[in-house]
């Protein structure tokens, strides 16, 4: 066995699928590799009815909202070729309402816009030079009335 961890995202969906929780437990028993379950807040409660599985969980660690420090680290991975000011990253964290996904989408969009405009650094005040750049907020578009 390699002892490499197995990461299962949206693992709370396993509970609703017949036999899936036991299958994951069997994988654990056979490999003895750590398994990291990522899911919604109610996942620990949903898993209580599977005592043989629930009893093997070593720790429950709730996810924390995305922080400025997280945004800095994410920028290194998702926008490595553009220097983003802390004012931009702070704005991303505010818009994200805790969501890492929203920060990463905005980082990718900013990196693409900066590359298209030959910019190697972006501050909040310089966003106007990105030609109509809009931050992703995770909201559905509003219907506009055309005259």
Rg is 21 Å
The separation of the N and C termini measures: 66 Å
Main sheet attributes: strand count, strand direction, barrel closure: 2 strands, parallel
The CATH topology of the largest domain comes to: Helicase, Ruva Protein, domain 3
* CATH class descriptor of the largest domain: Mainly Alpha
Shape category: elongated
Number of discrete domains: 2
* Class from helix and strand fractions: mainly alpha
Strand order, largest beta sheet: 1-2
* Series of secondary-structure elements, N-terminal to C-terminal: EHEHHHEHHE
Give the low-pLDDT segments. none
Number of helices: 6
Mean pLDDT: 90
β-strand amount: 5-15%
CATH architecture name of the largest domain: Orthogonal Bundle
Strand segment tally:
4
Fraction in helix: 40-55%
Kindly describe this structure:
It is a single chain. The chain has two domains: 6-54, no CATH class; 68-130, Orthogonal Bundle (Helicase, Ruva Protein, domain 3). The protein is 41% helix and 7% strand. The strands form two sheets. The protein has a two-stranded parallel sheet. The protein has six helices and four strands; from the N terminus they run βαβαααβααβ. The mean pLDDT is 90. The protein has 147 residues and is mostly helical. 14% of the residues are buried. Strand 1 (6-8), helix 1 and strand 2 (35-37) form a beta-alpha-beta unit. The longest helix is centred in the last third of the chain and has 17 residues, at 100-116. Helix 4 (68-78) crosses helix 5, helix 4 (68-78) packs across helix 6 and helix 5 crosses helix 6 (100-116). The protein has helices at 20-31, 43-47, 51-54, 68-78, 86-96, 100-116; strands spanning 6-8, 35-37, 83-84, 121-122.
């Amino acid at each position: 066995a390699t002892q490499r961890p197995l990461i299962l995202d949206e693992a709370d969906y396993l509970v609703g699928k017949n036999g899936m929780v036991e299958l994951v437990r069997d994988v654990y028993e056979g490999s003895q590799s750590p398994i990291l379950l990522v899911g919604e807040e109610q996942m620990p409660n949903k898993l209580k009815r599977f005592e043989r599985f629930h009893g093997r969980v070593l720790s429950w660690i709730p996810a924390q909202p995305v922080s400025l420090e997280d945004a800095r680290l994410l920028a290194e991975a998702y926008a490595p070729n553009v220097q983003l000011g802390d004012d931009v990253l702070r704005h991303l964290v505010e818009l994200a309402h805790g969501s890492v996904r929203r920060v990463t989408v905005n980082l990718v969009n900013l990196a693409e816009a900066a590359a298209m405009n030959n910019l190697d650094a972006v501050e909040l005040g310089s966003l106007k030079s990105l030609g109509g750049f809009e931050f992703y907020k995770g909201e559905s578009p509003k219907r506009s009335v055309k005259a």
